[in-house]
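**User:** Here is a favour to ask of a fellow structure person. Please take any protein you like and set down a full record of it. No explanation is needed for now; the record alone will do.

**Assistant:**
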Amino acid sequence: MAHSAHYECKIGPSILNSDLSALADESQRMLDSGADYLHLDVMDGHFVPNMTFGHPVVKCLRSKIKSAFFDMHMMVLNPEKWVEPMADAGADQYTFHIEATDKPAETIKKIKDAGMKVGIGVKPKTPVESVFPFVEEVDMILIMTVEPGFGGQSFMEDMMPKVQALRAKYRSLDIEVDGGLSPTTIHKAAEAGANMIVSGSAVVKSDNPKQVMDNMRGCVREWIMKSTLER
């Protein structure tokens, strides 16, 4: 897939840490505060030691929120099983974990055939090289900056070389980081070359989510501009 010759900053709040009984209202609050997309964490209790929600909840959310970009972070075993249900529920991007399937190429094709964009996630202990064979076929690579499964963990700065390696090799790829991102850690991710920023607690639990997102977006844009000028 041809990637455009540049990349832009996008901030996607993870609503896992919000009031899940008011998912639509919380999601709308994030969008009204300037979120570029919504990052929806799906966990199955097998791939990660926690459970969240599945496609029925996503479908209900889509019925209330018509136009937002739904980035599904599928922390599930056998991710190919849930492709059609998620597409049917109104998902826009389906991000599966490289560690969760022994059929990544087939899974990528299935997601595309279902009309969704494709992301691949990489857990902290997995080498980034594992996704290199697939980068040209997908829309986004997600580098986990915490162990997937629970919100509220601390940002792992030692994951930044993975982001740097991807950015050096793929100049216009969407590179997403997820885990412990806040105004105090954002500059590390921005400097490494990440442009899609998932933030949970720092945004959702803030008194002023707009200010937090604007702060992080400003930091990433600054680094994007700097790297463009340096080229």
In short: Residues 209-230 form the longest helix (22 residues). Strands lie at 10-13, 38-43, 70-75, 93-97, 117-122, 140-144, 174-178, 196-199.
